[in-house]
Amino acid sequence: MLALLSTTQTTRRREWVMALASVRAGPRKVPGPSSAEMRARKRVLTRKHLSTGGPLLLMELAFLLRGVGAQVVWITNQKPTEPYDVVYNLEHKMLDRGVQVISAKGQKAIDTSLKADLVILNTAVAGKWLDAVLKDNVARVLPKVLWWIHEMRGHYFKAEYVKHLPFVAGAMIDSHTTAEYWKNRTRECLGIKMPETYVVHLGNSQELMEVAENSVAKRVLREHVREFLGVRNEDLLFAIINSVSRGKGQDLFLRSFHESLQLIQEKKLQMPSMHAIMVGSDMNAQTKFETELRNFVEEKKIQDRVHFVNKTLNVAPYLASIDVLVQNSQARGECFGRITIEAMAFQLPVLGTAAGGTMEIVVNGTTGWLHPAGKEGVTPLAENIVKMATHVERRLTMGKKGYERVKERFLEHHMSHRIALVLKEVLRKSNSNS
């Protein structure tokens, strides 16, 4: 039986991500652990903190394992005290696929963990659940834990989160850059050693690829979204598709976009009108950062060029409607950045920060251009925006090269094969430790 342990928050941001997970995830017919191997395992326990794109991966893994005969239990922590439609729909989608759903707090969660053949902790903060719930039983569970880590932010490197890391069967991380960072940071800051660590690059879902490869669907989506935004078909649309937060760099992108408009005016370049779109907005949250973004747009008088779009359950319409994706995550960048490979599937070139997993996805000068993170990246990004806008053939060629790269290494069956190898190895270790 595969048990999924998820923490669900009551904030709007948490709700949206959970809904997104339920829409994207679905049954998979791809290579994975054999039915015989997985039926031989009684339980696998997976834990997920539902605060980022990680829930999509967790649900896909759950349904993959259900598809080969594993029993699955989703253990959810911090359930909202009041009913929420997205939580209800998510849990019932699980139940419809044969995934059991139980609370992370209580004896049933402890019993399930102890009986599991494999425990998958997903995200760094999942470590707090070990002591909080398992308590005296932690030592019995650690030898069969695979810890799936997606974070690169410094505040995750706290003993209360990761003190048990050296004793688990293995860690799975989305990029080589992030894996190396975790290895060095845990040693230098906490004096602990990472367990056997496996790097697993992610892959696009079959559902997304079907839309990306359907020219009629893309054309219809493009026309619909552009009509909604008031953008003409010949206009150029640059987009960031991330939850609005300082770490994702929307503020620096807006500065770059404004600077690119100034460059075009100064050089008197003849080209279609340019627009910027930020998918991931949520003014209901009334965050100081988003207010700053909107104030900047008004101050620079570019309201007719910049479009804020609320958080959405489906990114495909926006990928179909834009011309260039901007991945502007700051500091150490994205652990991987699945939106990047999703954009490349739509034959979009990518302008990304030279940080984190983006450097393992984007081939600089071939599938897009990289620029420095931080304020020093504002002008290079502005210049790259102008180059993308003025060199149509290069932009289209980069998009095609990106699509080819996705087909070579970033599809769902690539990811499932990589994960299958990790699961088999960790299960072998778990059995030998038992």
UniProtKB/TrEMBL annotation:
It comes from Rhododendron griersonianum. One of its GO terms (molecular function) is glycosyltransferase activity. Residues 225-404 form the Glycosyl transferase family domain. It comes from the Eukaryota. Keywords: Glycosyltransferase, Transferase. The keyword Glycosyltransferase applies. InterPro entries: Glyco_trans_1 (IPR001296), Glyco_trans_4_5 (IPR041693). This is Glycosyl transferase family 1 domain-containing protein.
